[in-house]
Structure formats: C-alpha cells, structure tokens
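quick one: adenosine-5'-triphosphate bound model?
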Amino acid sequence: MHTIVFTPVRRPPPRSHAPRLLTLPADRRLTQRLPHRAPASGRRPASASPRLPRTPAPRHPSARHPTRIMTSTSAPAPAALSTPRALARLLPFARPVLGRLVLGAVSALIASLLALGIPLVLEIVVQGPIASGDPGQIVWGAVAVLALGLLEAAMVWLRRWFVLAPATAVEYDIRQGFYARLQRLPVAFHDRWQSGQLLSRMMQDISMLRRWLAFGLVLLVVNVLTILVGLVLLFRWHWLLGTIFLICSAPLWYTGYRFEKSYGSLTRQSQDQAGDLATSVEESVHGIRVLKAFGRGKHALQKFTRQAETLRETELRKARAVGLIWFWLVLLPDIAFALCLGAGIYLVQLNQVTVAELVAFFAMATVLRWPMESIGFLFSFMLDARTATDRIFEVFDEENTIVDPDQPAAVTTPRGALVFEGVHFRYQDAAPTERDLLDGVDLALEPGETMALVGLTGSGKTTLTTLPTRLYDVTGGRVTLDGVDVRDLSLKELRTHVGMAFEDATLFSQTVRDNVLLGREDLDPASPEADEVLREALAVAQAGFVDELPDGVDTVIGEEGLSLSGGQRQRLALARAVAARPAVLVLDDPLSALDVDTEALVEDALREVLAGTTALVVAHRPSTVMLADRVALLEQGRVTAVGRHSDLLRESAHYRHVISSLELAERGAGGVAEGHAPDDPGEGDRDPDLRESEVTR
Ligand SMILES: Nc1ncnc2c1ncn2[C@@H]1O[C@H](COP(=O)(O)OP(=O)(O)OP(=O)(O)O)[C@@H](O)[C@H]1O
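yep, here:
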C-alpha cells in the first residue's frame, strides 16, 4: 500500500530557470515586497505598471461555469459585508455541528444564570437568617451557594465538552475544503498569490476560527445574555441603581464601536503581514543555495528584519488599542461601583432599599463584571475571526475558469492529432498596450509525429506547451485533440491523453515508484503491471541510477529522503511522463540537465517506445532538435516556419539565428549539464546539419 503525500521536493531549478528568476521583474517571482496594502491583499503585488483589469473571460462556454465550493463566486466582496454576515459565511461548515454548539451555549448560559443566582441567595440569607441570627438557616444558605457553585462548574465543563470536538471538526472541514480549492484553482491563481499568504491562511486563520467557534462565539452570546438578565435584576432592586450602572456602561458601547473600526483594519494588516513574513521565510528557505552562492544572506536577513519589525509595530498598535479598551473596561465599572455605593447608602437611609438588597446588588454587579469586561476582548476576538473568515473566503471566492464542461465530449481511442488553431494568449497581468504573447499560433501535429518547438528566449514556448493540458486556457482561438476542443473534454480525460514533463523537475517526498507512477491512478503500485510500466519508463529515461539507490525504486527521495542531482531528477520526471502513456507528450526541455550522450540515449529510447505518441518538445539545445521529425519556429507570437531542420536552416534566417544562439548558450553553459565537460566535443560531431548552421553563419 503506497500512501502518496504531496510534499513538493524543492530543489534549485535547473539550467535556464535560475537566471530567468533573477532577471524577471521583481514582482513576478521573487515577490517579497507587500507594503501597506489594501485589505483584500495576499495576492502577489502588482507589477510596476498599474494593476490591470482581468483578462476578459474566455469565449469558450466551459469558462462560463465556474466550480462552486461552499460559496458562490458571485458573493459580495468580503469587505463589503457586515461582521455578522461575514461570519455567517461559516455556516455551511458549522451546520453539521450546530446542535452541539447550541448545547454548548446553553450549558454556558445555565452556568451564568447559576452564578447570577448566588446574589439572590445572599439577599435571602442576609434578609432572613442573618437578620434574625439563626445559625441553622445560615448553614442552609451556605449549602445553597455551594450547590450553585458546583453546578456552575459542572456546566462550564459541559460547555467545553460540547464545543471542543465540533470546533475541531469545523476546522478540519474548512482546511480540507481550502486545500481542495487550492488544488482546483488554476495555475494563473497560483501565479498571483504568494505561497506564504496561502500557508498562513491555511494554518493560522483556520485555527483562529476553531478557537472563535469553540470559545469566542459561545461566550459572546452567553455574556451578552447574562448582562441583559443581570441588568433586569439590578433594576428590580432599584431603578436608580440600575440606571447608574447602565449609564456608566454606555460609554463602553461607544468605545467598543470605535474600537471595532480601528482594530478591524489593524487585524487585517497584521494577518497579511504575517503572511508576507511566511512568504519570505519560505522563499529564502527554497532559495537558500542562491542566497548563499551570491552572498545575499545578510540582505535577506535585513529584509526579513524589516518585515518582522513592521509586523511587530502592527502588533504593538493592536496591543495599544486593546490596552485602551481595557482601560475603559476596568475604569467604567469601578466608577459605576463607586456611584452606586454612594447612591445605595443614600437610598438605605431613605429606607427605599434594604441592606440585604444593597449587598445583593453589589454581589450581582461583581458577577456581571467579568461578562462586561470580557465583551471588549470578545469583540476583538470576533473581529480577528471576521478577518480570518474574509481571508479564507477570498480564496474560496476566487473564480475558477478552468473547469470541466457541462457535458464533456470524449475521445475514447485518441490518435494524438494536436492542433493549435489561431491561438491567442496573454497573461492576466499583461499591460493592455502589449500585444498578445501568442498572437495567432497555427500549428498542426500529426499523430505519432515529434515536433520540436524553437524560438528565442521569452518567445512563449513554455507558455504554448501549457495550453494543451489547460494549465492555462487560450484567450483566443482553440487547441484541439483529434478534432475536439480541449475545453470540451473533462480535465481528467484530457490529462490522461496529454502528458507533460517540465524542465524544472518537481518530485515529491515519496518513493521513486510513487513519483514515477504519479499519473497512473489506474495501477496498483504494488502490482506486477505497475512494476513493468515502472521499469520501462525508467529504462526510456535512462534512469538506471535508481538501482544503485539504497532501496532501489522504493527509496524515498526528496527533502525527507535522498537528494538527487538535477539530471537525475529530470530523468525521473521524464520517466513519470512516459509511464503515463499519453497519446500526446509535451516536453518542456526536460533533457536540459543531461549530458549530451545520455540525452542521445534518451532520445533513441523515446523514439522507440513512443513511436505511436505525438510529441511536442521545447528545444533549448540544438541536439534536442534532432529528436524531432519537424521543427516549428515561434517568432513574435506566431509560428512563422514549420519543416525539417535542414530545410529551415536553408530557408529561414531567423531560424539560423535561433539555432546559433542556442549553440552559443549551450557553449556558455557547457559545464552546467550533468557530467558535461566543457571540452566535450558535444553534438556538433553527431550532427552534420548543425555544422551546416555554423558554416551558414
Ligand atoms: N506566469 C506568468 N505570468 C506572467 N507572465 C509570464 C508568466 N510566465 C511567463 N511569463 C512571461 O511570458 C513571456 C514568455 O515566457 P515563456 O516562459 O513562455 O518563454 P520561453 O520562450 O519558454 O522562454 P525560455 O526559452 O527562456 O524558457 C516572458 O516574457 C515571461 O516573462
């Protein structure tokens, strides 16, 4: 039984991504600057150009039916809702345990009412037995107070028992839903959101909601009711005493209102800043090699310190706001006590109130003191919970445009004809003045054909490869598989027919077997059939090194297991794509970290095993072009030439330019590829066409 835990193995990216990270605008990938944002933040910051409207909704019908999980995508923006309505959005999660939560609240209310009963007993004892000096009766009074106290304690215990398990169940459900949502949301969403923000929402905010449901909500309801009942009783003793008490507590409501306004935005700020801090930690842990290699550890520390200080300042402002409200919470009841004492003594002298009533009044006011004081704390807790709810629902409310169509088409026996028809694509944050990154791509891959895709860096090759599997949706035109628009297929079916291997090989902290068989849900990983698929895929990817690992294919790799080289990781990622046996294989330069000889072996094996598979291969090395039956040249957002390598060399000046720049880049990166000696004769000796390109140049 193999349990697959999806913990991405973070490794330094291979060859061409690392420099790209460093040269991209700061907002794209190394995004750590999120100064004083508007409340609804957490997304990656806007680029230097002003934030632009979203890409218009794709025209294909499937994009018009976003998946809805526990929430409506047309829901009003969280910030526009009142606090109770914002918190009411938790109801779908809380509904299954609502009964127990209500029982918990009832227990808490009974506990409070029992506490309020003690002053009433006191009144009777002072008025009767104490006034008459009957010790026997006094004992009964004491027993009654003790019994009330014991019952109150039992109810408090019961409250905890009722609410604790349901609150953790709600926490579990929200977390599950959140994680499922993250899995479903498209890559474009993950481009915009910082991982630290998502992490802090997933962990801190959801835990806060558990505490709110278990304690905050229940106590807030119960304490408000207790105060109301207590005030009625205070008025029962004497209207003047009750009025003084009420008037003195009125400023509390005003202070509470003011407090809500300032504390709410402070809470939002601090939760966002905590998310930013988590992002910084995450990025510096992932990028530790780059930071060390460039001696930027100190710089990273300074940046972290600045962010930590900002968070600390916000926390201090929060603490000051809470301190201020506590000042009033403690002062105002004391003023009320003092005024009531003066008025009470005066009323006793006028015989309008008895001593017993005055004693009971002060006992009652003392019992009410904690509920009154706690209101401020519970208020701030409620605002924290509201902010946490907003932050969580910002993710739930994100529109998912990459969803299954209402009535999916089916390609039962795929032939592998992949066609790009007038494909347009632009990223969501592209400026309106920019032309589409893919500006009318027409390209047809015949079944079983291997097509190499070449173009200058940044021309959009990787972007094009993400469209057949719908990692992104086209913004114009269409991509078809065997004549069927890929948006008309269910995502599950589409991704069974089209497999991918990326240059940046992501492996998970699990065994080699589980990593390679990731796309084969249909196979029992322990079955002989799975073994065969695994062996074959590893053989194609020239991943014989696996046999040398301590436990062979059952060796756990990744952060909690064995570390692998870039080339070894790429070979496993390639084996994963091959094992999936797709009709169309999209390879985004997955051989870049291999030495030239291993690459040639992989290519030969791929040709043999994948004879019937259509392949689209992004080529960053001239040798990769050799794998292909035909080559497509991507230039200025269009495919400007398609043909055999030798023909293109002859006919297209831009193609010659691209190939020679690839050669130059490869020579520059000569030592980077796995086991590739700088003075290695390389593929030039194997490929007459490439020599031709040098000659042409
Ligand atoms: N997720 C993204 N969001 C916004 N812009 C992006 C994103 N990914 C890539 N781009 C931009 O799109 C352009 C094309 O990138 P892409 O990676 O497709 O090019 P490429 O031809 O594969 O480049 P290379 O040869 O360097 O790998 C670049 O300008 C890049 O900055």
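The chain has two domains: 91-396, 419-696.
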